[in-house]
Amino acid sequence: MPEKRLAKFTFTGEEELPELQRGIQAAKSERYEEARRMIVGVLKRDPSNVTAWLWLAVCMPDRYRRVECLQSALEIQPDNPLIRKALDRMLEEQPSVSPFVKGTMFALMA
Fold it and tell me: Is residue 33 within a helix (H) or strand (E), and if so which, with residue range?
């Protein structure tokens, strides 16, 4: 499951966001729709929140959207080897994923 792979992604300072923490807890409890709503709320206010993008990937119903979330996180932190590794794994599992179109995930936040 992707949440086990992403569970170690927590970045200093972001753990203090209560809405994000509630979203992470919901994701860990497999309440993905609830988690998505909370995490998207965080991203509406702070689209550069890497932890929120990573956990949104956990909550996505399909691999294509998970890859988009990981690509959004990598765009923010291009030198982060953990994000690169997670993205590479997702692409290895299904290499036919369409290329990322910048801004696609933001449509979820509208």
Answer: helix 32-45
- pTM for the model: 0.74
Quote the mean pLDDT of the chain.
80
| Phi, psi of 46, rounded to the nearest 5 degrees | -145, 85
Reported as a single tens digit per residue, the pLDDT across 12-64 is 444 458 999 999 999 999 999 999 999 999 999 999 999 999 999 999 998 88
How many domains are contained in the chain? 1
Please give, one letter per residue, the 3-state secondary structure of 64-89: HHHHHHHHHHHHHCCCCHHHHHHHHH
Q: Is-contact 64 98, C-beta < 8 A?
A: yes
Give 34 or 109, the one with higher predicted confidence. Answer: 34
- Please give the Cα distance from 71 to 82 (Å, whole number): 12
User: In terms of residue numbers, what domain contains 57?
Assistant: 2-109
Do the beta carbons of residue 23 and residue 38 sit within 8 Å? yes
